[in-house]
């Protein structure tokens, strides 16, 4: 049985950048529905008593889609926090500057990638085993979890993530996104990666 994780912030914490209304639909309806559908699909199957990550790595079709959407959304919520002018850790700032030129160039490239994604999906900052940072888009439920890359940051660019707040304007949503990125979480993922694969 897969559980819907608690949100790491309260329902008004992301305002005015993401409204309580968006959060109530996005978390309370969309994310919850992926969890409920997944539990219905895996009941009495080999996946019923395994981890979410394991399901994602070994399934396809509807089970994969719902499982990956559960994982992607949980990761997305962890990437967000109450606005507080957070910055990446010094180590992550150095890595971003090394691979993208500057923090500003990174955020611009990430935003352009997210805005340019056709249809529904996710934009990610990922890192390879040899510590190279890159920005990748995934369509629909696809996730870096099934690749050689480790996810550090994601932005959900399905319309349900922003339509109630910025209607059809994905660029406006991306602008808001940077005000609420939980850099402490992103930096922690970078640190964990270095610990797992060795320092540069
Ligand atoms: Fe979503």
From TrEMBL:
Enzyme class: oxidoreductase
General function of this protein: Destroys radicals which are normally produced within the cells and which are toxic to biological systems.
Reaction(s) catalysed (UniProt annotation): 2 superoxide + 2 H(+) = H2O2 + O2
Ranges where the Manganese/iron superoxide dismutase C-terminal domain occurs: 88-188
Positions of transmembrane segments: none
Organism for this UniProt entry: Candidatus Synchoanobacter obligatus
Residues covered by the Manganese/iron superoxide dismutase N-terminal domain: 3-81
One Pfam assignment: Sod_Fe_N
Family per similarity comment: Belongs to the iron/manganese superoxide dismutase family.
Protein name: Superoxide dismutase
Enzyme nomenclature, EC number: 1.15.1.1
Record's keyword terms, sorted: Metal-binding, Oxidoreductase
């Amino acid at each position: 049985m897969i559980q819907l994780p608690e949100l790491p912030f309260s329902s008004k914490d992301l305002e005015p950048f993401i409204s309580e209304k968006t959060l109530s639909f996005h978390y309370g309806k969309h994310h919850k529905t992926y969890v409920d559908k997944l539990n219905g699909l895996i009941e009495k199957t080999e996946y019923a008593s395994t981890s979410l990550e394991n399901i994602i790595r070994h399934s396809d079709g509807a089970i994969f889609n719902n499982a990956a959407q559960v994982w992607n959304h949980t990761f997305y919520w962890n990437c967000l926090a109450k606005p507080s002018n957070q910055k990446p850790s010094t180590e992550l700032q150095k890595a971003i500057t090394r691979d993208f030129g500057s923090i500003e160039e990174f955020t611009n490239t990430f935003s352009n990638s997210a805005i340019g994604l056709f249809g529904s999906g996710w934009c990610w900052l990922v890192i390879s085993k040899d510590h190279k940072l890159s920005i990748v888009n995934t369509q629909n439920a696809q996730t870096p979890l099934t690749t050689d890359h480790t996810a550090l940051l994601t932005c959900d660019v399905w319309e349900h993530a922003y339509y109630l707040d910025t209607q059809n304007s994905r660029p406006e949503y991306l602008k808001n996104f940077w005000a609420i990125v939980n850099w402490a979480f992103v930096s922690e993922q970078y640190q964990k990666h270095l610990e797992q694969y060795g320092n540069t």
